Amino acid sequence: MTTKELVARVTDGTAYQQSQVATILRKTLDTIKRELANGGQVQIMGFGTFEVKERNARTGINPRTGEVIQLPAHKTPIFRAGKSLKEAVNI
């Protein structure tokens, strides 16, 4: 599903216009992004938790060349699904 399709589905059955829903979605995602960039986490009850995980530096292998390379330490965003989301997916 694309962002445009998501906006259209959310708009169905509401009194909001697609432009309003698109603005709300964009603002929501920007807020989550800013919170993660500041080292925080965002927990949406019944859905899941967005957080940042720190990865240690490590040695890797370039799959094309077989060359050994050093991968630097970095932070990466992760999402942990909540119980009700997991249950909805496993129906």
Q: Could you characterize the architecture of this molecule?
A:
The structure is a single chain. This protein has 91 residues and is of the alpha+beta class. The protein folds into 2 domains: 1-38; 41-91, IHF-like DNA-binding proteins (HU Protein, Chain A). The protein contains 3 helices and 5 strands. Strands 1-2-5 form a 3-stranded antiparallel β-sheet. A two-stranded antiparallel sheet has the order 3-4. Helix 1 crosses helix 2. It starts with a helix and ends with a helix.
Give me some keywords for this one.
91 residues, alpha+beta, HU Protein, Chain A, 2 domains, three-stranded antiparallel sheet, 3 helices, 30% strand, elongated
Task: Specify the biggest β-sheet.
Answer: 3 strands, antiparallel
Indicate the proportion of strand residues: 25-35%
Gross CATH architecture of the largest domain: Irregular
Helix/strand order, N-terminal first: HHEEEEEH
Order of strands in the sheet with most strands: 1-2-5
Shape: elongated
pLDDT < 50 stretches: none
* Number of helical regions: 3
What is the count of β-strands? 5
The residue fraction in helices comes out at: 25-40%
- Cα distance spanning the termini: 20 Å
By CATH, the topology of the largest domain is: HU Protein, Chain A
Structurally, how many domains make up the residues?
A: 2
Radius of gyration: 18 Å
Oligomeric state as shown = single chain
Supply the CATH class of the largest domain. Few Secondary Structures
